[in-house]
Amino acid sequence: MKTQINGTEILELGFPEGKIIGIALKINSKRNGFTRDEMIAYYKNVLETPENYIDDKVFSKLAVALIEKSNEKPEDFIALNQNPNAYSAYGLDHIEDGARKQMEVAMKLPVTVAGALMPDAHQGYGLPIGGVLATKNAIIPYGVGVDIGCRMALSVYDIPEAFYFENEAKFKKELIKNSIFGAGHGFHGQYKSDHAVLENETFNRNPFVKNLKDKAWSQLGSSGGGNHFVEFGIMEFAQDDAVLNIPKGKYVALLTHSGSRGMGATIAGHYTKIAKEVCKLPEVAKNLAYLDMNTQLGQEYWMAMNLAGDYASACHEIIHNKMERALGATILAKVENHHNFAWKEIWNGEEVIVHRKGATPAGKGVMGIIPGSMTAPGFLVRGKGEENAINSASHGAGRQMSRTQAIKNITPSEMKSILSDHGVTLIGAGLDEAPMAYKDIHQVMKAQEDLVDVVAKFTPKLVRMADDGSKED
């Protein structure tokens, strides 16, 4: 019986693109007697130690192809550092091997200064999601990520908890009326929003980015697909917070999660392709191709990345302003933080570029929001400035199932049941975003007690996400 494994799954294991994927698929298409799980295990082993399978009757061709690929070295080949510094890791026992291996590779880059792995980490492309990497004068597009400047934004209203439950229908109406989701979706005509970000000079200085302006304007104030959301919930302050000037109590709050939409994704794809052309790294590290900050290309990407970050912030600002007007409420506090970005920071006395791919800035006193899932609480936190973590924390609970795994293993009735048990009303979202697809947020928070202090807890009650199964465009 054939074991159904597709090319995307093989790529996710870390296999290089190209003919090797075809070789792996051909092996799987034959009657080899292995179960799906056994095949996946073999693929991982062959990828890690191909020399052990050179004479294997099933996997020899794949092993030889991998060895040949690893020996390909163009004239401008950049060697990895075979004696890298160690990286700090939090909650390591609950982090998958794929994420660890990606972090180990990132530490071998000749430009790497330091690294850290957050407790919500899981495998991504290039730098793992939940990975923090400090580099010397170099910027890595895939170290930033595809959804540049993706962020959390929180508005805490002067509305008591009881008012929400007495007026849930009104909150639901305003949520539907003032948010829009889905890859490619945007506003048209009179429904478009305006914002100062559209006048940013980078649009005029960079012809590639200039061509993205119309799409950016259309999508301004929208939330995209994937795991992005707009939700109402109850924010509980267990004690007075003098810094925010909020007394102990429970308040209605709006929490949003989204990024730079199609513009950011297009910028990421464009400059990653360029980086791979000018920075020839070994196959295992090719998605970590970097741009020298002293070059025009490095400066181009840096400016485009910052524009995308400002644009993502503008999208949140528009959503929160619309909701504030619709509710007629007073905002007691606003907090915003972003991930999938790079910052110039001082670390160990030198200026470095700190990439936080799915990681939250957590410098001393810096506020941040770390969400759980649609049924698990999120937390308003204040950073402790832990240097070993490069002043960072997790950006959420982190996935414990891939989207494909979640769709295969979670039923609609199971998802409906858990939403009901937690009193959560969901608008949109597919099984790939089911709460069970995520790690235990309490476990994640426990693993980073040295990194952040919890200020307040956010409990989701009304959640809206894309309902078309789309990822970011």
Automatic annotation (TrEMBL):
Cited Pfam families? RtcB
User: What does the record give as the reaction this protein catalyses?
Assistant: a 3'-end 3'-phospho-ribonucleotide-RNA + a 5'-end dephospho-ribonucleoside-RNA + GTP = a ribonucleotidyl-ribonucleotide-RNA + GMP + diphosphate
InterPro entries assigned: RtcB, RtcB-like, RtcB-like_sf
EC number in record: 6.5.1.8
Q: Which domain of life is it from?
A: Bacteria
Q: Which cofactor does it need?
A: Mn(2+)
Q: What class of enzyme is it?
A: ligase
- Give the UniProt keywords, A-Z: GTP-binding, Ligase, Manganese, Metal-binding, Nucleotide-binding, RNA repair
Query: Key word GTP-binding present in the record?
Result: yes
Q: What is this protein called?
A: 3'-phosphate/5'-hydroxy nucleic acid ligase
